[in-house]
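User: Show me a protein chain along with its predicted structure.
Assistant: Here is one chain, sequence first, then structure tokens.
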Amino acid sequence: MHEPIDGPSSTPHEAPLRVLHTDEHLVAIDKPPGLLVHPSGLDAHEHRNAWDVLQAQLGLRLWPVHRLDKATSGVLLFARNVDAARQLTAAFEAGLVRKRYLALVRGWPPAEGEIDYALARDPELPSAGQVRLPAVTRYRRLLCHEWPFPDGRHASSRYALIEVEPLSGRRHQIRRHFKHIAHPLVGDSTHGKGAHNRAVAAWLGTPRLWLHASRVELPGSGGQAPIVIEAATGPEWQPLLSPHDAE
């Protein structure tokens, strides 16, 4: 049985959603952690979701074109018409949309790397017997942290802030790939370690999945420049961005 994912995932967000970009084709928001993208049978008791809230907030009909996990924060896109939805969905499926994330992982991974590891189609089911789909994730280590609470046989615990670029779009790809290389995301109750999640939540004072969609770059049409949409991290990330305890 999994522990619940972080506090913000179970706390409703009543403030208006922050719009990052809008034009005749799309709307981009900064999704807070703990908010579903759209209604889901995987979380049937949760009725509040970004799709419904944003449509009511803007008085527009919108179409979801990609997804973020409930506990993940950051850039989330919606199309403003059916044609735009088809085009944006096709761009995501073709790998033409570049995405960057910030994440906190256990341990100190190499300074940079590429994880090329095929993943089972459905992360909610046992992997055995499932079709495995190609999946590639690049990452770059930004800062190392060593905090004064025990990690098994060691008196202190090591964690790293990383920038991640998934080159494919498999479900839970980032979380599953970093579990595969033994550097699980902190706050991930499904693919991470409960003891580490609880220890970091106590140290930082924030129980959440430490994964933030910081940047989306959409291909320009008709020779136009790409559209770049960025979402700054929330204040809870500030201790992770400071190099005072980094190697």
